[in-house]
UniProtKB/TrEMBL annotation:
Matching NCBIfam families: PRK06292.1-1
SUPFAM superfamilies in alphabetical order: FAD/NAD(P)-binding domain, FAD/NAD-linked reductases, dimerisation (C-terminal) domain
Sequence ranges assigned to domain FAD/NAD(P)-binding in this UniProt record: 12-330
UniProt keyword Flavoprotein, yes or no: yes
One Pfam family named in its UniProt record: Pyr_redox_2
Cofactor(s) it depends on: FAD
Domain Pyridine nucleotide-disulphide oxidoreductase dimerisation: 360-462
InterPro entries registered for this protein in UniProt: FAD/NAD-bd_sf (IPR036188), FAD/NAD-binding_dom (IPR023753), FAD/NAD-linked_Rdtase_dimer_sf (IPR016156), Pyr_nuc-diS_OxRdtase (IPR001100), Pyr_nucl-diS_OxRdtase_dimer (IPR004099)
Gene: pdhD
Keyword Flavoprotein belongs to the record: yes
Similarity comment: family membership: Belongs to the class-I pyridine nucleotide-disulfide oxidoreductase family.
Organism: Methylobacterium iners
Keyword set, alphabetical order: FAD, Flavoprotein
Protein name: Dihydrolipoyl dehydrogenase
Highest taxon, organism lineage: Bacteria
Amino acid sequence: MQEPPLRELRCDVAVIGAGTAGMAAYRAAREAGARAVLIEAGPGGSTCARVGCMPSKLLITAAKAAHDARRAGEFGVATGPIRVDGVATLQRVRRERDRFVAGVLSEFEKFPNEDRVNGRARFVARDILVLEDRDTRIAFGAAVIAAGSSPAVPELLAGLGDRVLTTDTLFEIPDLPRSLAVIGGGPVGIEIAQAMARLGVAVTLLDGGHALAGLRDPDLVARANALFAAEMTLHFGTKVERAESAGDGIRLTWAGKDGAGGSGVFDRVLAAAGRPPSLRGLGLEEAGLSLDEKGGPCFDPRTLMGEGAPIFVAGDAAASRPVLHEAARQGRIAGRNAAALVRSGPTGIATPAPWVNLAMVFTDPGTAAVGETYDPERAAERVVGAVDFSRQGRARIMDRAAGALRIYADRAGCLTGAEMLCPEAEHLGHLLAMAIQDGQTAQDLRDRPFYHPTVEEGLVTALTRIIDGLDAR
């Protein structure tokens, strides 16, 4: 039987992946005058909308409602017994999640039909892609890899079926489990762990380190560990050594670095040890890209151009700052630079200054890391302004008085970073990120209007202590 002829496509810029970074790259390339195609392997809808930011925040918000109802008595408000309907909770999560996904897909469908290609792409040369079924061949001038990420699942959990969850499957379960083991205390792990605990699930979190939510400052680490230990069982410095079926659940056995160990049986286990880039099967070697020790492409972090080929990397595939606002910006940079490379050559490639680092974890209290964070080796170069939120006025009014904030400045008083575990961390983090990005000093920001009584007044306390510290020098 004669094989069907290959479908041949030619374009200036080929974008692999139609998530946040990929769609931004496609738009930017088109706006720069390039002929671009957008390749999506499915299911589409972006990591954020389908399995990341949006469904997790829906679960967290449900957990907050339950938590606030239980604590209403602190304000003299009687609510009676609180019952969480797990089926209804997860149905709402999926219903609203699907709205967000539909919005992303509708944007994708607005692009011209001739620019949208469905299939799994693979490089066969530095300027050629083929789709998985091999009936389409795409020749390009430049490409953007925006293939997203996939959850990492420890090998020892293989073969245990749907009792093992990832963020790709967590939001599809029909009801809340009675018990849950969370492996990994990073941003995703601690967010889900706290939400599940507040929804009535018995949660055990195991982590190989001794800090949660990516915190680094020792005081904040200690505060966080104490706060979260009140809501769940924590095992730090542990490694899961064995996982096996136990009735309808899973028995985990772990060992600690100090020689201590333990075991437990859980209805479900959530693997929350990270989301590495989805690069397998892309044929990076055939593209001529230089690869790092993990098999990922080496690339310039400012231009996003890979070494050895006219290929750019953006979003989760870049594995540098896997958050949506960075993915969108990286997509725009990669798309513009890919178009410029084709139309003007290397001299047309822009090297924009990076945004100040801004990372948040939506626990309660929340955390945020802005710019330069805790570094004991730079203590002599810094002035630190601290505030304890257990005594902050508005925090006490809301019965959310917990945590602390550290703001860092150089010896000239210029703001360089901050780390926090406190109420409204997402808002304080934004204010500080903008101030640092604009090159403000502690005095500059202190001189801005701050309303009373607000959580933002905590910044005033910390900034004043930086100013006083500068004067003391």
